[in-house]
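Next up, sample data:
>
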Amino acid sequence: MKKSFIISIFTLLMSAQFAFSQQMPLDFSDISDVFSNWGGSTFTTVPSPTDPNNTVGQFGRNSSVSEQGNYMDLDRSIDLDFNDEITLKFYASDANSHTVTVKLENGTNANIEVGATTTQNMWTELTFDFSTIGGNGEYNRLTIRIDDGSSVAGTFLIDDIDDGSVHLDLNAIDVEYTDLVWSDEFDTPGKTAINSTNWFHQTQLPAGGSWFNGEEQHYTNRIENSFVENDNLNIVAIKESFTDQGVTKQYTSARLNSKFAFTYGRVDVRAKLPAGNGTWPAIWTLGKNISESGAYWQTQGFGNTSWPACGEIDIMEHGLGAVNHTSSALHTPSSFGNTINTASQVISDVTNNYHIYSVNWSPNQITFLVDSVGFYTYNPAVKDANTWPFDLEQYLILNIAMGGVSGSISPSFTQSPMVIDYVRVYQNNGLGVKDNSQLNSSIQVYPNPVNDIIYLNANVPLTKLTLCDVSGKHILTQEKPKESINVSALRPGVYILEIYSSQEKSQKRVIIN
């Protein structure tokens, strides 16, 4: 749900293919096992002629003698230092001699290639031994050419391209958060207003009198637009003429800010989405420090950072593509608006079926999931203020926008809800605890971030110190606390320092560079 958003539907639809990883080994069972073509060659997937339940790659060449072939750019490199052989299964429908060339490109060393020849009209395993040409290093592009220089067109099948590596789930979460620290189950009886302890209605229009992205709605605090009923939160977009803040608009909706902010954890939201062209429901987060007039945390004195420097995590958006096409994205100073850090997928009947839209946010990566299956992970190699403004607290936003970049609103639209069964936030030991004890003001921890030595300046006697990582794993304990802790041997990341004085405990978040 971007504040400044220019995007093409084509880009979003194409990003669906990147929801899955292109990596070896390749057996064409994954929708991302797709080769690109050049020189008039073709590629598609088809059932194997010997096993209709097995999908294989079909590679075609035309009658031109010019070089042609197929290639794939890999998310994980082929490492010849680990294994210098690549094997594949090849099938031709004739008994003629065919030469298959495997070329490795975009690597740490010069491009290299090895060929193999077969004359059998059946599945044949071919081996490409790169040690015969001194192959070493890593390569990110796999290229296949068949029958170089031939003027005979042909169609060939390939399966099980293997470099000896193991297929990894690149969207596996790295930290599992299991402690429920905040939730709203929406289980009040009857039809009631939202729980104002948990949520804030953001209704103030931005400067200029309209919401961002060309949206056409007013956000209101009326029960018509947001209420709890039958154990569900309902956020309802309505077609109606409504005047507020001196501006009349033809649609109303609600935009809820959570009064809970957190750093790291997992968010699960079980929801059904509204129907109708032009509806734009979103489940997302913004940095607690965002400077945005009318936002809850701005009213609490925390707004000191502009967008996108505050960071934005779009857990779920719908309406930016075809029906049932949902997307997730991140907005940072390095890429925002039409961000490159996005992925999408088509899921089943989002209006009538509940789905659980999730994000798992750790100090190392952010993984998006639908129904507990990860489909996109953001993990920049360099994490700094430009790429990773995600080391500070974020808060949740639930809303339905109308029109704008989600397209024209259907003339037949009258109203439609986003129905939410629950919102749950999970963390691990220490991450959800606020520093509220009087002990806090008596202790200074510095420097923070730290490179090697953490120093403590305390005005009260300390009885114990413990240091844990963000998953709650114990790192060290000092039963007789000293004035410093040597952390030079620890890996960079975020840690929780627990400081005890008699029966009181304070927790400090420490960043080790």
Notes: The radius of gyration is 28 Å. Residues 9-15 form the longest helix (7 residues).
